[in-house]
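Supplementary Note 3. Input sequence used for the single-chain structure prediction.
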Amino acid sequence: MKVASTQWTAAHGWSAAAPEGVSAPDWILYFGATTRLEAPDGPVRDLRTRFPGALCCGCTTSGEILGERVSDDTVVAVLVKFASTRLRAVVQPLDTPECSHTAARAAAEQLRAPDLRHVLVLSDGLRVNGTNLVAGFREALPDNVAVTGGLAGDGTRFGRTLTGLGDQIRSAQVVAIGFYGPNLRVGYGSAGGWDAFGPRRLITKSTGNVLYELDGQPALDLYKRYLGERASGLPATGLLFPLELLAGTTAVSGLVRTILAVDETAHSLTFAGDMPEGQYARLMRAGLDALVQGAETAAGGAATPGVDSPQRLAVLVSCVGRRLVLGQRVEEELDAVHKARRSGAIALGFYSYGEICPPIGLRQCELHNQTMTVTTFAED
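The predicted structure, written as discrete structure tokens, is reproduced below.
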């Protein structure tokens, strides 16, 4: 397995016209700004023209990650040449969020095969119910096949997100890549660093990922009271105060959910994943050091033991909310991931509207918000 990275900027174009060691890649994975990916003659077209034999896929971001640096208004990419691993990718439309489960099942069923080892998913970040998307993949794939990936971003604008497979770079679709063969080794880890505060509030009215009432009160009104003057910046400021979804009054911890949109007329909040009636929600906040420690934990969980080759790829998907909280210290979490890997792997990734990864120690994938997730690829 050989891996090379490159970055496109408006000032200099691609940083490597022919990345060293990977002249005929099997796979190109890219992440970039919405304005750069939606241009039909943009940077991705250059890659596809130069390497027509490669499976080329990616999505838009809320910040592009390459190594230990994060950038905006760029495109980052890795070119991968496998020794024996095979790839197949499919794309499914997401006409409405209600189609998420069906789209995931259809994609997974197309990828199923006896030697399928892993599935990487890149989804539209706004026109999706992430909980149903993940459930569809879980139901249609064998228990021994893990799923990782994320929901595309659009900065803090929440306007339009794109995913791409070949020349199909558009919104309202999900791209899934299957990896096949006995020599591929995949590791994955996820961790947060957020702390809950305030009372647990019962979800008394919701539909899928739209939350209408907490403790019988309009959800948006209650949430605005917590945010105070920051409420005027919703939905972006909601990234600073996600909700923890709890199964009951005694649950110690649960899944974190981030706000994607608000409806002033219905007084509702739309989240990346389901907010089921009868469960509880609690506000969360984070300290900077805790977020950095969470990133290090995720990288440690993604280690691929028994593979000595430095030619590895680490795909990082971190939440845009983490980036907003960390501010000028955002690259500290990337540095923490780098130190925890200790492998010299090339790291590429993006800041997202949702992360897909099994919790550490498990294989069943979950939709996360406000986490750092790391997926490592290597071959024997």
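The mean pLDDT is 91. The chain has two domains: 2-191+289-379, 196-284.
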